[in-house]
Every structure is written in structure tokens, then in C-alpha cells.
Design goal:
7 strands, 21% strand, seven-stranded mixed β-sheet, 8 helices, Rossmann fold, alpha/beta, binds S-adenosylmethionine
Length: 224
């Protein structure tokens, strides 16, 4: 699925009411954006948004934010959002998650979804993987105690890296499979993403892990 540049997408994302501008100004007060104190769940790297728009319509009792760094992908998610009637629980950020700690304060987020994240196969780019110890450290700073991260991918190497990264960073592995679509309990309530539809149609097994943030005293020092 190659992402084509959509002329005007960037300009539209700067004015669309569902795309929050200057998100760092809401750090520590995201409840005000939604006007309630429901739990906040994020999808980082949402692409064209099928996953998060589906979840938002299934769970009005949860607040969702989809984060995507490219306007040409994000605009597709925004279009899906515009077609949803009576949806009050979903906004978007056009934003690079590397700076996510500028946007969410301690304990503001209950759950993070990462779906088919870019693999960055070269070792020298490992820190850019959204499941690297460096990113897990960023997530730790904003997740509630007991908060979880759910990660799906078709990439076996990235999955192995992510399991090792989670262990290294002191996260607790709650569930894992290398064949989600044949694992009945984990498949319950599964919402397919655009990439998941494509890869599973090609017969590729889908991997999934669910990990839980470490307690504060048990966090690894991943800064070295
Ligand atoms: C391979 S696509 C998967 C899209 C979607 N999650 C799916 O499963 O269909 C990965 C997406 O993550 C976005 N992405 C990668 N790194 C990112 C980052 N640091 N911050 C925000 N988005 C990111 C990319 O722009 C791309 O749209």
C-alpha cells in the first residue's frame, strides 16, 4: 500500500476541526478537549484510520486520538470521521510521535495501539521503531499505572525485536501470538487495520502482543 501524496492534504489538516493544532497546549488537560473524564486511548501511526474510527464508533465510552505524521494518510482517516454521525469521542493529531511527551502528561493515557508500525530494518535506525526501548520509555511517562500497549504486525523480525525490547524495558508481557487470526481468544473483538486486511489476505500470519507498563520503581534505565 504505497502512500500517494494528496495535493492540499497538508493545508486541509491545518484547518480541519477534527485535527487538533498545537497539541502541546493541551498537555495535562485532555479531558477538557472531550468535555468528560473518560479514559483516553491512542493509536500511533494510524495510517488511513480504519482501526481507530471503528473502535471509536464501537466504544463511545472511551476517548480516542489517532496520531499520524503524514497528511496524505491522515486525511483518509479524517474523511472516515466526517462520515460518522454523532461521534464525539475521536480527534486526530498530525504529529511525529517522537515528541509525544510534549503532548501527554503523566497518567493521561490508559492504552496505546501500534498497528503495523514501520519496521526500520537497518540496525542503525532501531531507535526509530515505535516499540524500541526509547519509545517504551516515552510511553511509560504518560500511561496510567496498569496501562497497556497493544501491538500488531506481520513482520516477524520486528515482532521478535518488540518482545525483546519490552522485556529489556521491564514491561510485563500479558499476551502474545504469532498467528492472531488462528488464536480464538486473542481474536475476539479484533478490529482489522488496512494493512492487516492486506497482509492476511496474502496468507501472512499476524503477530500480536499486549504488554503492561512497569511500575515506577521497576523501570529499566534505557537512556544509555
Ligand atoms: C505501515 S503504516 C500502518 C498504518 C495503519 N496502522 C495500518 O495498520 O493500516 C505505518 C504508519 O505509521 C506512521 N508513522 C510512522 N512513524 C510515525 C511516527 N513517529 N509518528 C506518527 N506516525 C508515524 C506512518 O506515516 C504510516 O502511516
Amino acid at each position: 500500500m504505497r502512500l500517494r501524496n494528496i495535493p492540499g492534504a497538508r493545508e486541509e489538516m491545518l484547518v480541519n476541526p477534527y485535527v487538533i493544532q498545537h497539541p502541546e497546549t493541551y498537555k495535562g488537560r485532555w479531558k477538557e478537549v472531550f468535555g468528560n473524564d473518560h479514559a483516553l486511548h491512542l493509536e500511533i501511526g494510524m495510517g488511513k484510520g480504519k482501526f481507530i474510527t471503528t473502535l471509536a464508533s464501537k466504544h463511545p465510552e472511551i476517548n480516542y486520538i489517532g496520531i499520524e505524521k503524514y497528511s496524505s494518510a491522515l486525511i483518509k482517516g479524517v474523511e472516515k470521521r466526517e462520515a460518522m454521525e454523532d461521534c464525539k469521542n475521536l480527534f486526530f493529531l498530525r504529529f511525529d510521535a517522537e515528541y509525544i511527551n510534549q503532548v501527554y502528561g503523566p497518567g493521561e493515557v490508559e492504552r496505546i495501539y501500534l498497528n503495523f508500525s514501520d519496521p526500520w530494518p537497518k540496525a542503525r535506525h532501531a531507535r526509530r521503531r515505535l516499540t524500541s526501548p526509547e519509545f517504551l520509555r516515552r510511553y511509560e511517562q504518560m500511561l496510567l499505572p496498569g496501562g497497556v500497549l497493544e501491538f500488531k504486525t506481520d513482520n516477524q523480525e520486528l515482532f521478535t525485536f518488540s518482545l525483546e525490547s519490552a522485556e529489556y524495558a521491564g514491561w510485563k508481557l500479558l499476551e502474545a501470538t504469532r498467528d492472531l487470526h488462528h488464536q480464538d481468544t486473542m481474536l475476539l473483538d479484533n478490529v482489522m487495520t488496512e494493512y492487516e486486511e492486506k497482509f492476511s489476505a496474502m496468507g501472512q500470519p499476524i503477530c500480536k502482543m499486549i504488554i503492561q507498563v512497569p511500575e515506577i520503581g521497576r523501570r529499566a534505565d534505557t537512556s544509555k
